[in-house]
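Form 7-S
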Amino acid sequence: MLLQGDERLDYLLAEDLRIIQSPSVFSFSLDAILLGRFVSVPIVKGKLVDLCSGNGVIPLLLSTRTRGEIIGVEIQERLYDMAVRSIGYNKLEEQLTMIHGDLKEIVKEIGHSKYDVVTCNPPYFPTPKADEHNKNHHYAIARHEIMCNLEDVVKASSQLLKQGGKAAFVHRPGRLMDILTLMRQYRLEPKRLQFVYPSERKEANTILIEGIKDGSPDLKILPPFIVYGKDREYSEEARKILYGE
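Output:
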């Protein structure tokens, strides 16, 4: 059966795709969509890897921007299974492949220095004490650095990339210095940075950053991305990436 338990089949409207979601297991956020649109990808060919893939939303988004081979890596079996079924529903098996595995071990499985692009929407928050964990195990792993931390993500990304390959991440502004430090430590020179704001009068709550393996120093700060306008409706830019308007 396509759907199990409380799963539902949602639209990725701008891409005209469908994706399996579950309120009790995993539902993607705007962050994933922003990353899928922010990262630079080869149009015709290439090899791409998405780490911490969840239900496969970023591989699905990338499939509309490139004809390259895309691999998603997800450690949670239930989310991996949801992603596989979504890929099958959209008939994208020839382009997209999911791997059920640990990103800390993935280089051994799929190869070192072979990929053109790596993306990751990683867990944002440090691991809490055991009694502070989210009672929902799936959400706890997705949100907190329980199975991997930021250094694991950056290290794996660098190891997977060819020289000149690109890595792109979405994270929280409070971790910006950590990200920049780790990227340089692992030979990923930061090249593009964008701050995402809920509205014009609020502080940024998300960052998008892209680096090039062994690139030369030259960081560009892109114009801010504003999610909501003064009318509390999605901004024109947000509507474009969400609905294709």
